[in-house]
Amino acid sequence: MSTELRFLLAIILMIGVLVVTNLLFPPVTPAPSRAVDAETATGPGLSPGVAEESPPRTTRPSPTEPAAVDTVPAQPYQSEQEVVVEGPLYRHVFTTRGARLLSAELLDFRSFTRDGPVQLIPEGPTGALGLRLILASDTLDLRSVSFNPSDDHVTVGAGGPKELTFRHEGRGLVVEIRYSFSPDSYLVDVVGSIRGVDRALLLIDLGSGLPFNEADEKSEERALAYVGNHLQEGITSHPLREGVARPTVHEGPFLWAAFKSKYFVFALLPGVGEVGPEHFGGLLLWPEGEYRAPAAVTETIAGDGTFAYRAFIGPQDYENLTALGSDLEEVNPYGWRLFRPVIRPFVVFFTVVLVFVHNTLNLAYGWVLVLFGITMRIVLWPFNQKAMRAQMRNMAVQPLLKEIQTKYKDNPERLQKEMMRLYKEHGFNPMAGCLPMLLPWPLLIALFFVFQNTIEFRGVPFLWIPDLSAPDPIFILPLFLGVSMFFLQWISMRSMPEVNPQMKMMLWIMPIMMVFIFFNLAAGLNLYYSVFNMASVPQQYLVAKERERLVAQGPVKPRAS
Question: What does pTM read for this prediction?
């Protein structure tokens, strides 16, 4: 069972027990994407592999065989060289062979599957951001040719954006690619020009997926996917758990295409303003294996031979992704599709609040959650008080209700009339005791998704917990959560002179079920809910005392008809 389904089951059970217990067992008083053949849809020769340099050759495609790659002759600069770009946030490694990106490390985030920072380029020779030109009858694979770099090491610092230019020239073909890096952004601006060919379509490699970086391998497996934002069809996500079965083309136009994991994203977006087209033409994928699918987007080269696009290689930070536009922040959406419009505002609001408190008060996120749980209990105090007192009124009126039901059981019309009079005179409302108590659930659901894929909580330790976004490794918090739920129910029931057998059963069953469901959820969620429960104890105790005084007064007497 997935984490989302487990949590959904928990919410349904808790709400179900709350509502059904109020109604049935009141305490009594003594009285698609379309997959097509990529070769057919885009032309021949779109092999995702990197061709070796060889003497130039040109072949004509046959109706049944793909065209051979027409490899552009190499520059005098023959040996392959790595070019390192280092900034405060990242360390990128390019190769002069194809001007491709071979490594993308995020220095602020530690990988839990390898030594060092998070890596967003899988191991292998292909890398990302390689280029191919689709001509009328042939494919020019620029990923295998040599480029001259403008520098062998680029340091991006306080001085502002820095550029790295790769240039290839030979046999009438001139290709120039300029990468621009900012010290405070994960966005890479790419502008290029190609001279010597006419009417070509450009293929830009998105890579083949994202490597595993999380200790919780199962949650990472579920999160790995390729995602596209289609201009008409909207955002669609395709899991990579089983890879891609066959060459696939998703017809555009696309506002962006991306690979995403639980916390990180590698996305390609069109250029901005008048630089480059407003969208990509299509998204192509090839099979490679489990969790891998070499992908590329197509872009039309302008009449003057120029092209442009942007690459975002970084964390799924809501603020940064929102600033890029085109709903890129929805690359890893919160919640189930049907409820996203409702869940999203809560998730964003509570994330902003938690981060603000953390930054303003300089508190560890664990203590922020403790403070947040107590604060929310105080905020909801009047609503909970109203609900508990409504339950007591309902409890006191139960003997009168049963008397009416017995007396007029054979006269439905009179029964309904007398029950309406009872509701009006004594303020009896079967739902009044549970509706205000449903208010904590939107918050709990929102926090579930906050800990599911909010980068701020990734790898954050607290006391014995190594990561608030992962399950408690020794299960102390889920057990404490179960104890807190038992304690709250026990305080409430001990003030009742008589308790239904069903409620006695739920006193034991519910905490056990909640421990079972919550034991594999984020430690931060368990911490918040445990603190929230314990902060409810004073109010539960005061209400229990008030119930005892009400019971001591005796049952409600019927009013004269």
Answer: 0.76
